[in-house]
Design goal:
The chain has 31 helices and 15 strands. It has 651 residues and is an alpha/beta fold.
Length: 651
């Protein structure tokens, strides 16, 4: 009764069957069944079994399912049913038609021998409606196959001839990488490749090749492209480069989308490959190419700009796809974390050029125009110009001015500022004092020198009046900027919390000896940084009070900028201890500041002070006032602003 109820609920009419009602199995070979099915417009049902004691599940299906009148009638009218004993000679001949399917099984075929649907007695016993579902689906699928007369046409020439054909025609190669034992491969051949809309799309857009990866050219291609699963679909250009890759059984529409994605990539620039890092290294070795690694972070604005504006450009894609294996990694998750540590990525975007041994040979940091980016990337292809080569030459003692400038330019492009400063300082300090005062050496010093205690900087400071000979409009300001950069550099080391008072003392002496006009402001900058470094907040607050109340400036900053930059450090380090002082400073400055953005930042500082003091109402009011000022500024300036062009440091 339960069986009857289940079948009725599924739309299978159940009647009290007379004794003769039974699915009829005919004594035919599979070839004979095909011929009969073709003549009668039917499909084939094969009970694939092995002679011997029948399994309990099979016996129950024979008695309870095959004897239902509606089922036996459907099979009689639409299906040629046969049994195949897999232990017989006929079974051995039939085995290839199973396509690795395990038996005992119930399998439906069309008249041409294409496998349609399959199940087994255990599944039918658990779900009595399943047999009719499979039967009807098979009949429908057979009708679809009968209506579809076209199939993907696969070329049978040598691989070299296929590549040449791709070059000549400008088409991509679609390589169906399969094996004889792969069941999903056979299903794709049977169910997907034979549909008109699939065949038309692939025949119209690609040079199609189906290759057994265990025979002929297959093993070499499998090794070259790191193929580890079947079926794998590779879309390859005439140079043998993989443009797109996918794998696994696909429904027809999904399979067409795979092809569309491949076509989009050849029209849309750089193709970034999938695969774990080890497989990428192996592929670099197989293809004798460098790896181009785009090391990015999801919050990085310049990274997004490069993805949007540079990588999609056809000339960029053509260059990178031809010469590199292109890979993207988020440096803040997955493999990216280890790669960031290994290659010391300190800013985004960082672009690394890595050989198959995992050694970095060149580096570019920061976004740029497509033209500039291509110019920089081309350097990576020249072993004589790669950073690794230049580093080896430098360590070997080469110090010509042309070489030093080349090396410094590469280090600068790689955002390796500390390394560039060491090279520049080493070179300049090796020169006689008389050779420093020329334009070429001054330009190197101005761009790279960051040691405020360097005798080279002192020499330029003492002789700064001569810098006007090199077109320097304000020598005092130029030298002060170099001292400022050096002072900041003392305190920019990530894990350094030590005092730099001895260094500041030497810097102070150098500026005094050079009679530098901005010495007092630079000394105040150094004092602020030193007090924050060693946690002497009382002295730190005293310096800020002089700035806010007495207009004693810190070099390179307006008074409001100094207060809004340094006072938050004071509040966060000391809690409510200095909140009253900070509020006095901000009120004093608000009465003297006109620019709405400066006013907004001062209200942000007031908000933080009130939060530290525990007054959330006043904090909220200050925050709202800051937002209003920003809105007013945007309205007055019509939203004008600047796009960030420098690489973003790690957060």
């Amino acid at each position: 009764m339960l069986l009857a109820a289940a079948l009725t609920a599924a739309g299978v009419m159940v009647m009290n069957a007379p004794a003769q009602a039974q699915v009829k199995f005919e004594e035919l070979s599979f070839a004979e069944a095909q011929k009969k099915a073709q003549n009668e417009g039917k499909i084939i049902f094969v009970d694939v079994m092995r002679a011997g004691p029948a399994l309990e599940a099979n016996q129950r299906v024979e008695k309870e399912i095959f004897t239902i009148d509606s089922i036996s009638a459907f099979f009689r009218d639409n299906i040629v049913s046969i049994r195949v004993d897999m232990g017989s000679e006929a079974g051995k001949a039939f085995a290839p038609n199973l396509h690795m399917l395990m038996y005992p099984a119930y399998v439906f075929y069309d008249a041409k021998g294409a496998q349609l649907q399959y199940t087994n007695a255990h599944s039918v016993q658990d779900n009595p409606t399943l047999l009719m579902e499979k039967a009807r689906a098979s009949a429908t699928l057979a009708e679809v196959k009968e209506e579809n007369t076209r199939t993907i046409v696969f070329e049978e020439e040598s691989w070299e001839a296929i590549l040449q054909q791709a070059k000549t025609s400008g088409k991509l190669i679609f390589l169906d990488a399969q094996t004889e034992w792969c069941r999903p491969c056979r299903m794709m051949e049977r169910d997907v490749f034979t549909l008109d809309r699939v065949a038309d799309f692939y025949n119209g857009n690609f040079i199609n090749v189906s290759m057994d990866m265990e025979k002929g050219d297959g093993p070499a291609l499998a090794r070259k492209h790191g193929i580890r699963a079947y079926p794998t679909y590779l879309f390859i250009d005439g140079d043998g480069n993989v443009v797109h890759q996918d794998d696994g059984y696909k429904q027809p529409d999904a399979f067409i989308e795979v092809g569309k994605a491949a076509l989009a990539k050849i029209e849309s620039g750089v193709v970034f490959e999938d695969g774990d890092w080890e497989s990428i290294l192996a592929r670099a070795d197989q293809e004798d190419k460098l790896i181009f690694l785009d090391a990015y972070a999801v919050w990085c604005g310049p990274c997004k700009a490069m993805d949007r504006d540079v990588f999609p450009q056809p000339e960029v894609g053509e260059f990178f796809n031809s010469h590199f294996i292109n890979v993207k990694r988020d440096m803040e998750k997955g493999e990216g974390l280890a790669l960031r540590e290994k290659y010391a990525v300190k800013a985004y975007p960082t672009y690394l050029f890595i050989n198959s041994e995992g050694k970095e040979v060149h580096r570019i940091v920061g976004g740029s125009s497509a033209e500039k980016f291509l110019e920089r990337a081309q350097v990576a292809l020249n072993p004589e110009a790669q950073r690794a080569t230049l580093e080896a030459r430098y360590l070997a003692g080469e110090r010509s001015i042309d070489f030093v400038k080349q090396y410094l330019d590469v280090l600068s492009t790689a955002y390796l500022r500390d390394e560039a400063a060491v090279v520049a300082t080493d070179y300049l300090e090796s020169l006689p004092a008389g050779q420093l005062l020329n334009e070429e050496h001054w330009n190197l010093a101005q761009q790279y020198l960051n040691d405020p205690m360097s005798p080279v900087l002192l020499h330029y400071a003492i002789n700064r009046s001569q810098l006007s000979d090199f077109g320097v409009e304000n020598p005092d300001l130029a030298i002060a900027n170099m001292f400022s950069r050096g002072i900041y550099g003392l305190y920019n080391q990530r894990d350094d919390q030590s005092s730099h008072a001895p260094e500041l003392k030497k810097v102070k002496q150098s500026m005094k000896k050079a009679r530098l006009a901005h010495a007092e402001e630079l000394n105040r900058l150094g004092a602020l940084l030193e007090m924050a470094q060693i946690g002497k907040w009382k002295k730190f607050a005293s310096i800020l009070k002089d700035v806010a109340v007495k207009d004693k400036k810190v070099y390179g900053q307006t008074v409001p900028v100094t207060i809004t930059q340094f006072a938050p450090r004071l509040l966060r380090a000391t809690g409510a201890e200095y909140t009253d002082d900070v509020l006095i400073w901000t009120d004093a400055l608000l009465s003297r500041v006109d620019h709405k953005l400066d006013q907004s930042k001062l209200y942000d500082l007031k908000q933080l002070a009130y939060q530290q003091a525990g007054d959330e109402a006043k904090a909220a009011a200050a925050g709202e006032q800051s937002k209003q000022l920003v809105a007013q500024w945007q309205k007055e300036s019509k939203g004008s602003g600047m796009m960030m062009a420098v690489p973003m440091k790690l957060q």
